[in-house]
Design a protein that fits this description.
Layout (H helix, E strand, L loop, with lengths): L3 H30 L3 H4 L1 H20 L5 H21 L3 H28 L6 H30 L1 H22 L11 H5 L5 H21 L2 H9 L5 H24 L3 H22 L3 H16 L2 H12 L3 H28 L6 H26 L17
Helix pairs in contact: 1-3, 1-5, 1-6, 1-7, 3-5, 3-15, 4-5, 4-7, 5-6, 5-15, 6-7, 6-11, 6-14, 9-12, 9-13, 9-14, 9-15, 9-16, 11-13, 11-14, 12-13, 12-16, 14-15, 15-16
């Protein structure tokens, strides 16, 4: 694998850490600013909204710029947002810093996916995308627990300063190692928008929202589920999340490897397996050991869908993959937000802390049905790319 993929993975590590570490530091941040924890929770919501809106916005702004240059600009934006968060004198400024950092998130992974795929042979594209996303999964194993520890030990501002430093390393790595890939001739906003005329692109994005929603319906409420149902201590939740991160890491690698060979079967297996595990999780949540195994499997099966779904969007978007790829990253975050809201609704309805697992299973099962439908459509209309609505520019390898 090219060294440039390592630079992309380091950037992904920083982004993954800043996205999730704030959840472990909410009490400290709320205490410093004298606000309630739910109010501090706006830092999570604001970031997610920034990703969903920033993914298409920043990608559109970058359509006239080379992809390497845009990646450098995005990492600069990420560094600036985290430094602003580290120094923020008020909650409002802190939220602004979070939103600035989040604007880089979707476009970085979207453009980075295209660059990673362009760096390798056609039969290695999903593996290359998975290598970049390894940075995001390692962030959940190492970055988030370490950032939480640093924040609790010496102050949460130090955590954000350290994350900004990782962003600088990623920026320098991209500048030094990523080749200046030429922009596809004719790649402009109109060309990028043609990708959304293909129903297969929209179906892949719907699978992303629902499949990843299945994961986060359960994981968003993992703390109350594990402490109130499984009987774990509050302190054990951090290690259970590390276990979830380990599952993400393994699933991402497996998803990348097998998606290069059999993309749709990989999607069927991972989405179907996720739905089954989430149904069983309603029962296994009552056992400490089985609950831990279930958390590992939810992470593994959920992230096994990431490389194939991202590659599916790239494949189906043809000559205009950049915007579609970035919007698909926004779709992951939309799935997170949708699932967290639905999971909260069933808990509020008095159905118990394991009820979000049923929601997750329903979402994952629906994503599986969409995958089957997508494959059936493809068998009937294999020549979509030859129709007049297709992007006129071939994919750049």
């Amino acid at each position: 694998m090219p060294l440039a993929l390592l630079a992309l993975a380091i950037g992904a590590f920083g982004i993954g850490t800043t996205e999730f570490v704030v959840m472990g530091l909410l009490p400290e941040i709320a205490g410093d600013y004298g606000v309630s924890i739910p109010s501090a929770g706006l830092l999570v919501t604001g970031y997610a909204i920034g990703v969903v809106l920033g993914a298409p916005l920043m990608t559109v702004l970058g359509t006239r710029i080379g992809r390497k240059t845009m990646l450098i600009i995005l990492m600069g934006l990420f560094v600036a947002g985290n430094l602003l968060s580290a120094a923020a004198p008020s909650m409002g400024v802190m939220l602004t810093g979070r939103i600035v950092a989040s604007l880089a998130h979707g476009a970085f992974f979207g453009i980075g996916s295209v660059v990673a795929a362009d760096l390798v042979a056609p039969d290695k594209k999903a593996s290359a995308i998975a290598t970049m996303f390894t940075g995001l999964t390692v962030a959940n194993i190492v970055g988030v627990p370490l950032g939480t520890f640093i924040g609790q030990a010496v102050g949460w501002r130090v955590t954000f300063a350290v994350v900004a430093a990782f962003g600088v390393v990623g920026l320098l790595g991209i500048a030094a190692l990523v080749p200046a890939l030429p922009r596809s001739e004719g790649a402009d906003l109109r060309g990028e928008l043609t990708a959304f005329r293909n129903p297969q692109v929209l179906l892949a994005m719907a699978m992303t929202v629902l499949g990843f929603g299945g994961v986060f319906a359960a994981i968003t409420y993992i703390a109350p589920m594990m402490t109130n149902v499984a009987g774990y201590s509050d302190g054990a939740v951090t290690w259970l999340l590390v276990l979830f991160g380990l599952g993400m890491f393994l699933g991402n690698l497996l998803g990348g490897r097998f998606a290069d060979r059999k993309l749709m079967p990989m999607l069927y297996a991972s989405l179907g397996g996720l739905a089954v595990v989430l149904v069983l999780f309603t029962l296994t949540a009552h056992s400490k050991i089985l609950a831990a195994v279930s958390i590992l499997l939810v992470g593994a099966l959920g992230f096994a869908t990431v490389p194939p779904l991202q590659k599916r969007v790239l494949d189906q978007a043809h000559g205009a993959p950049t915007l579609a790829s970035a919007v698909n990253i926004g779709a992951f975050n939309l799935g997170n937000a949708l699932a967290a809201w639905l999971g909260g609704q069933v808990i509020a309805a008095g159905l118990g802390y394991t009820a979000p697992n049923w929601v997750g299973a329903l979402l994952a099962g629906t994503a599986l049905l969409l995958a089957v439908w997508s494959a059936a459509l493809e068998r009937r209309t294999p020549a979509w790319e030859s129709t007049p609505t297709a992007a006129p520019v071939p994919i750049h390898h």
